Amino acid sequence: MNEPFSTAGLVGDDAADASAPQRSRLGLWQIVFLVISAAAPLTGMLGAVPPAISLGNGAGIPGAFVIAGVVLLVFSVGFASMSRHIVRAGAFYAYITAGFGRPLGMAGALVALLSYTCIQIALYGLFGFFCTVVLGPMLHSALPWYAYSLACLAIVQITGLRGIDLNSRLLGVLMCLEMGILLVLSLAIVTHHGGPDGLTLEPFAPKHVFSGHMGIAVMFALASFIGFEATAIYGKECRDPKITVPRATYVSVSLILVFFAFVTWAIVCAYGLKDVADVATKQPGDFWFMQSAKYLGGTMTTAMSLLLLSSIFASLLSFHNTIVRYIHALSVEGLLPAKLDRLHPKYGSPYLASYLQTLSVLAPIGIFVMVGADPFNIVFSCTSALGTIGIVMLQAVTSFAVVAYFRATKKDTRFWHALAAPVLGGIGLLWIGFVLIGNLDALSGSDSAIVRAFPWIVLTVAVLGIVLGFALKRARPDIYARFGQ
């Protein structure tokens, strides 16, 4: 690697530590801020809850979030156990490599890059769309959605270059603000004893949770958690990763689970068991703002609109950091050009990987602009659906890779941690993945042939990764041998 930061003369873990993208060390809560920001709680609540209610299980939506959270907590057991033995920036593909070998690991790497990039493109479309809705009237501006998206992209690039410490502090502030306003609204609803049915635990009753299309509701709920798995990606940048990463994983999933369950319970109580699905179907865009105006007033409702934009920005910055670390790791592995592992002389961030990540998003956005794609119905809905398929399937494969790794190495022989939890988590994620594939029209808002081809696109990318693995084994055994190691 070129200066200003060289790994010459270092071997093993020392070399790996030296090539980490940031010299400073992150603490538990800094990692938690980074990954919960990727989940974008406010965006998830405002964007995913109304369709989850109207298309899914209606008043039982809090229970759907509990089910999704429990599945991910079970998944996290094996994921966290693995993080104690393998500390790599490319968590998914490193764990798959350890369990199933390098060809499947390379498939995981390509699918991860595709999936995270799609999600980030989707979020830029969503950001531009909501800017036209929120900022346009405020500023009396008729700027197109992509003007806001490109401005946001530039800010994310500049902020991303400044290093992970600044990013984690900024994301921590934004996360507290967006979660704070939802908590204030929820507590106001509780203080006023809810709506027609009062404060009731009925939304958690099996007759509501398992009513309607519960699988669709769980599908939307799980999509709201995406981003938490990035805890392991920051392993090389945190203090005592074998302790910090598992704790950060459990804390992140638990916080998101409790928060989402409580907030969705409060909003169901506000509308009442009988009316909540009807309102979510007829007025999905105003679903949360109507209750905010009722309980908090116009000023706080306007603040919620602005915090929605900051929530999307926080998620974009968090995913930028995640993808950059994947690119940096793959450059160290030899799959991408070695220059991409260069660190910024001042901030210690992988700046060339950062520029490449921005370019990989800018090009598709430019294509969407040229063809006149709708920022919400196409850019956001469709690309987020493609990204979600990839992430859920990666999580499932990772669960089974954990079992294979521990059975082969015997490094962890605990029944729950090394076998039962990973198998149960993998089965649960596969079920959600197949529900997702079967309901792509609901998730994406389109039933076009392109959308129906999304699972095949993910499978094709995975197959290309496997082919690449075997090709490297023959042509570049040196690169093949060090991949995932």
Can you describe what's shown?
The protein is mainly alpha-helical. It has a single domain, classed as Amino acid/polyamine transporter I, CATH 1.20.1740. 75% of the residues lie in helices and 0% in strands. It has helices at 12-18, 28-39, 41-57, 61-83, 91-100, 102-139, 145-161, 164-191, 206-209, 214-223, 241-271, 276-282, 287-295, 298-333, 351-370, 375-409, 415-438, 440-444, 449-452, 454-475, 477-482. α3 runs antiparallel to α10 (214-223), α4 crosses α17 (415-438) and α6 (102-139) packs antiparallel against α14 (298-333). The longest helix is centred in the first third of the chain and has 38 residues, at 102-139. The two termini are 18 Å apart.
Briefly note the CATH topology name.
Amino acid/polyamine transporter I
Question: How does the helix and strand content classify structurally?
Answer: mainly alpha
The CATH superfamily turns out to be Amino acid/polyamine transporter I
Percentage of residues assigned to helices? over 70%
So what's the overall shape? globular
Sum up the structure in keywords.
485 residues; mainly alpha; Amino acid/polyamine transporter I; disordered N terminus
Summed up, what is this model?
With 485 residues, the protein is mostly helical.
Describe the secondary structure blueprint for this structure.
Blueprint: H1 12-18, H2 28-39, H3 41-57, H4 61-83, H5 91-100, H6 102-139, H7 145-161, H8 164-191, H9 206-209, H10 214-223, H11 241-271, H12 276-282, H13 287-295, H14 298-333, H15 351-370, H16 375-409, H17 415-438, H18 440-444, H19 449-452, H20 454-475, H21 477-482
